[in-house]
Amino acid sequence: MMERIMYLLASNSFFKILLLAVTLDTMLGVLRAMKEHKFNSCVGIDGAIRKAAMLLSVCLFMAVDIIVNINMLSFVADKYVQMLGIHKLGICEFFCLLYILYEAVSVLKNMTLCGLPVPPKLKRWVQKFLEDMTEELPEEAIDHTEEIRES
Q: What is the pLDDT of residues 101-133, one digit of tens each?
C-alpha cells in the first residue's frame, strides 16, 4: 500500500505544486530571517514541524482516498471540470489546494517583508492582511502602507 501511495503522490500535480510552494516558502522565510537578523532556531523548528505535518497529512489523505475513493468533482459543474482538465478531486487534492493557498499567502508575506517585488494590488492586500491578522508588519512597512493608501 505504501508503494501505491508514493506512486500516486509522485504523479499528483497538486502534491507537486504543494512541494514547490513549501520549498519556496521555506527559502523565503530563511532569507527574511537573515535580512531581519532574527534567525531563531525555535521558530525554524516550529515551521519545519508544521510543514512536515502538512506533508504527512497529505500522505495520510492519499491513503484515505485509496480506501474510500471519494471524488468531489461531482459538486463542480462539468464545464469547469473540463476547463480545469482534472479528473479527480479527492480528499488529498482538496487539502493540497488548501495548503497551497496557505503557503501562497506565506510566500507573498515573506516576499513583501523581504522587500522583493510584489504587484502593488497584491502588496496592499498582504500588508492589510498583516496589519489585521498578525503583528509581523515592521514599522517602515506601516509608514509605507499609509503612503500607498493616500495615493
A: 999 989 988 888 888 888 888 888 888 877 887
Which cell numbers in the block locate residue 25? Answer: 516558502
Cα–Cα dist 50/58, whole Å: 12
Structural domain contains residue 57: yes
Number of domains present in the structure of the chain = 2
Residue 147 has pLDDT above 70, yes or no: no
CB 89 within 8 A of CB 72: yes
Are residues 77 and 125 located together in one domain of the fold?
A: no
Alpha-carbon torsion (111, 116, 122, 127), positive or negative: positive
Rounding to the nearest 10 degrees, give the CA dihedral for residues 130, 132, 138, 144: 90
Query: Which residue has cell 459543474?
Result: 77
Same domain, 148 and 92: no
Residue 44 CB-half CA count within 13 A: 12
Please check whether residue 129 lies inside any domain of the structure.
yes
